[in-house]
Amino acid sequence: MKRDDETSALDVAGLTKRFGSYTAVDEVSFSVGRGEIFGFLGPNGAGKTTTIKMLAGLLKPDGGAITICDHQMATDPTACKKLTAYIPDRPYLYEKLTGYEFLQFVASLYSLSREQFGSIEQYLQLFDLLDWQHHLIECYSHGMKQKIIMTAAFMLDCPLIIVDEPMVGLDPKSARIVKELLKNHARKGNSIFLSTHSLEIAEELCDRIGIIVHGELRSLGTLESLRREAQLDNSDLEEIFLELTGADELTAIISALKGDNG
After folding, report:
1. Can you say how many angstroms the Cα of residue 174 is from the centroid of all Cα atoms in its chain?
2. How far is CA 45 from CA 11, 26, 48, 49, 94, in A?
3. Three-state secondary structure call for residue 217
4. Bridge partners for 219 per DSSP
5. pTM of the predicted model, to two decimals?
6. What is the dihedral of CA 224, 218, 17, 37, to 10 degrees?
7. pLDDT in tens, 98-146
8. Residues 123/124/129/135 CA torsion (nearest 10 deg)
9. Are 51 and 27 in contact (CB under 8 A)?
């Protein structure tokens, strides 16, 4: 968990992105400390994916700054990307490569040593991919593709992992393994930026949580501080999230549905 005397692995200041007259992300600011798992939540269309793409260097901001381990994305994007592992919700993989060849390709991009590349065996074993590593990726299921991209991310052992919907397509065993790997990565002093719709996962894993609504950071803090903000003592994250993002509207919808069923 982040401490006050720790420097940040990720600093975001006034991040803004517009598409024509539409502002998708509006002056969003937060930091992720070393050793912290930071949850990023929000309704569909709130600006989560746009923010993630900017953090991963896939989309250029219209304003603000992204700093990763003291490197500015605007002036040194290569250094920022080498310090970051990105796990998208829908991984794009070269399907005419085998899983092993894909991992070799990623390792070459990051100039990994032979010893570092050797770490893939433990991850392939954990994810039940040892027998599949020399098969073409086009033969993989969605869950297997997700596991191979996660193997690549953990192999890199970067100071920052950006992960979007980590459990999509994973069986319960693999989902549990991913949770433990993320916790272990943070325990080593690395940082996780985790975007998810699963409030149970966010509540279990995250040290702090940011909630984005209509492109603006609506709330930011620990689960306890969010409870106080929502004035919902002893509530779980689902109730807090709904309260902070429009529980009144949801309550009206549920009442209307109950009325229709009655």
Report:
1. 17
2. 23, 13, 7, 8, 29
3. strand
4. 211
5. 0.88
6. 10
7. 999 999 999 999 999 999 999 999 999 999 999 999 999 999 998 999 9
8. 140
9. no
